[in-house]
Amino acid sequence: MSETLANLLQENRRFEPPAALAEAANVKSDAYAEADADRLAFWAKQAQRLDWAQEWDQVLDWSNPPFAKWFLGGTLNVAYNCLDRHVAAGKGDKVAIHWEGEPGDTRTLTYSDLHKLTCQAANALTDLGVGAGDRVAIYMPMIPEAAVAMLACARIGATHSVVFGGFSVDALSGRIQDASAKVVITADGGYRRGKPSALKPTVDEAVALCPTIEHVLVVRRTGEPVAWGDKDHWWHETVEAASTEHEAQPFDAEHPLFILYTSGTTAKPKGILHTTGGYLTQASYTHHAVFDLKPETDVYWCTADIGWVTGHSYIVYGPLSNGATQVMYEGTPDTPHKGRFWDIVDRYGVTILYTAPTLIRTMMKWGDEFPAAANLSSLRVLGSVGEPINPEAWMWYRKNIGHENTPIVDTWWQTETGAIMISPLPGVTATKPGSAMRPLPGISADVVDDEGRSVPDGGGGFLVLREPWPSMLRTIWGDDQRFIDTYWSRFQGMYFAGDGAKKDDDGDLWLLGRVDDVMLVSGHNISTTEVESALVSHPSVAEAAVVGATDPTTGQAIVAFTIPRGSVDTAGDAGEALIKELRDHVSKTLGPIAKPRQIMLVAELPKTRSGKIMRRLLRDVAEHRSLGDVTTLQDSTVMELISDGMKSAK
Ligand code: ATP
Ligand code: MG
User: Fold this and answer.
1) Which of 167, 169, 309, 448 is geometrically suited to a Cys-Cys bond with 205, CB 3.0 to 4.6 A?
2) Which residue range or ranges hold the AMP-dependent synthetase/ligase domain (predicted)?
């Protein structure tokens, strides 16, 4: 990207918080001024949300940037903060997790249940020789034992590395090797799309490539037959036989809590390292502030998988440290029918829902009748994370899920940031559809140009973070130099997030996708997000992905892949007419510079396992190259379909 991003999309809609919610909100507008006045004092106050065995001497040590130390000298135990202290406060019988398996089986775990199981798992891991500082890989379906495994590691000071249960032998073994993990915790399998999906065979193959693995702990979930070796132990024979008594030891605030590899949308996965005190402080505070969580009355549901950072911070550590009651669901959103999510919201009376734009757009494609069939009146805050949310998807979410009055918090953050960084506050912010609005109190984000100068309101450029924050990554596991090169070298003294962004005339922030995806058309930098949002604003479109393909006249030309909404007729001439209409629609909405050279109507888009569009592969198709690495692709047949469609369209 040479200079700044063109600002194309105009959005004038505003939504004030409902008065009652604003009145009772956990965090009010004065939090911004308080944090601005003394950022470190603000974070020190938030750290008091936790129980510390030993209070810190210094809030932040930034004497050796970019290597930050937060809450120096402080000690605490993460699992104690998520479990023991709630039980000690008389909340042992409160439901921690309403779990629902894909086949419809359910389990209810109270804080006391979760505490006992975690103590047992901590004892079992200790018996297997796992101690503080050792690494443990976790490769699990979405069952309560996944959270227990993470908490048990935290409890004994072992560093967990959760690997998404859909990843291949290569991905799993690569991550085990990179961290020299000693133990893998897994299951025979989980349920996906109506049938058992095995995990243990992948672990067996990976372990054969990983000599550091001494033991494999296996939860029985599906009951499918599994191969059994010397290193294997059944969870029900070891963990469930262990003592439920376990005293948690405090660890240093900078003790490594977990490694999580970024999804690899762009390059070789990086082992992002998070530590203890600062991470838990920000995960807990943001969960309280951004979702306005009232632990006594709310039922919270985050639809992410624990394999992603969202599952770490907003299924396990944020909600449990706050004593929340939450729903955890094992399976896919359309099993056995496309209303499954809304059934769950209805049945458990979910009040706070946190999901991803990819799911919202999929639901748009399926049609309004599915949410309409359920009672969603319990919902009071809606969240979004993972990609920019297109304004029309935001509006659909508000109308069809949020009964036209529920605040939507569009939360920008990354694996690297550990917790939410930019987001509306539901009781404070007058939201704009598609904007993540402002940095949270205590966070200093900015948009800068090529030279690192702050752009004025109305300008676009690179998103940066100017000051260290408590839950920031501490390094890339085993590779300090890559940490410096990747995040701290592009701009002097600033963290470079890799995302494009703009400030609107009010100074509110709009995320514009990855800098690598920005298109250069006739000398103008144009964001994929804005063109995609223009396409999604057409009533016939559910989802769109846009890439820049080499073009002899304009340098790059815009090629769009578009999924029509369920009811739209695209056969023959109707398809041609729609394509013409869409090209004109983009031109009218954003200006002629953004008019796509070519629009393809497709049934699916290539996405990562976490649901993000892989534009890199679409660029290959648009430029007629052979396809790049597809290993993190959710469904590899999608690319064949698109490539075939591309050929027949010419
Ligand atoms: P990799 O870094 O391996 O390519 P990834 O960036 O997809 O993978 P994550 O850390 O899960 O892995 O995702 C963070 C990225 O997701 C952000 O940098 C941003 O591009 C995008 N993102 C997340 N939330 C939002 C949001 N609310 N608005 C816009 N973009 C978002
Ligand atoms: Mg990233």
Assistant:
1) 169
2) 86-469
